[in-house]
Design brief:
Helix content: 25-40%
Distance between the termini: 44 Å
Order of helices and strands: EHEEHEHHEEHEHEEEH
Shape: globular
Largest sheet: 10 strands, mixed
Structural class: alpha/beta
Number of strands: 10
């Protein structure tokens, strides 16, 4: 049964977020609001939790998962970033974007793309999520919460609790949440002098990136 946390979006209650952190540290999978719809999250280095997250979404290892990072300095520990890529990242973070970059050795091979060895990375803007990440002291592995055989991401915590109560360990409710996934941009072509590639246009404006 999923534990339900009602978090104030402007003044998040540390006590409640600490309880959510404890669930994650015990190997839990929880649903959280982000800058762009709800996402499922778990610890990066917990194999069983990652497997559960994939089963809930019914996705295989070829589906890009993303790391939620507090800032660009943390992101750089998990992805190789050159100067051109960094300038573009700086324009768009924090915000509703997922960037695909080459993973470093800090990322377990089982969560990076099996062929390309890439990982998606996000720097969210929401206060309660930034506080949660700070308490974790490490990025969270995340996937936009799009139920199996559906095309739209979820944005209603009550609906999530009703439909997935037995599969999740926690649901965070923190005010309004958009029902639109992130804009996904592949930055790996920039390593060889190419241009960033838009994989999916979502909530993040392409104009912000100059694309």
């Amino acid at each position: 049964m999923a534990q339900y946390f009602e978090i104030h979006p402007e003044n998040p209650q540390p006590r409640l977020l600490e309880q959510a952190v404890a669930i994650l540290q015990r190997g839990g999978v929880i649903a959280i609001p982000t800058d762009s719809s709800y996402a499922l999250v778990c610890q990066l280095d917990d194999r069983d939790a990652v497997d559960r997250l994939r089963r809930i979404r019914q996705i295989d290892d070829k589906h890009h998962l993303a790391l939620l990072c507090r800032d660009l300095s943390e992101l750089a520990s998990y992805a190789r970033v050159d100067n051109r890529q960094y300038r573009l990242l700086k324009q768009a973070t924090p915000g509703p974007y997922t960037f695909i970059l080459d993973a470093t050795k800090e990322v377990p091979r089982r969560v990076s793309h099996p062929r390309r060895k890439t990982i998606g990375l996000r720097v969210p803007e929401r206060k309660e999520l930034q506080l949660l990440l700070g308490m974790m002291g490490a990025p969270l592995l995340a996937s936009t919460f799009i139920p199996p055989d559906e095309t739209e991401p979820l944005n209603d915590p009550e609906e999530i609790r009703e439909r997935f109560d037995k599969l999740l360990d926690g649901v965070i409710e923190a005010g309004s949440c958009p029902q639109q996934p992130t804009t996904v941009v592949d930055l790996t072509p920039m390593e060889n002098g190419g241009e960033a590639l838009v994989v999916r246009e979502g909530r993040g404006s392409l104009a912000t990136l100059g694309l």
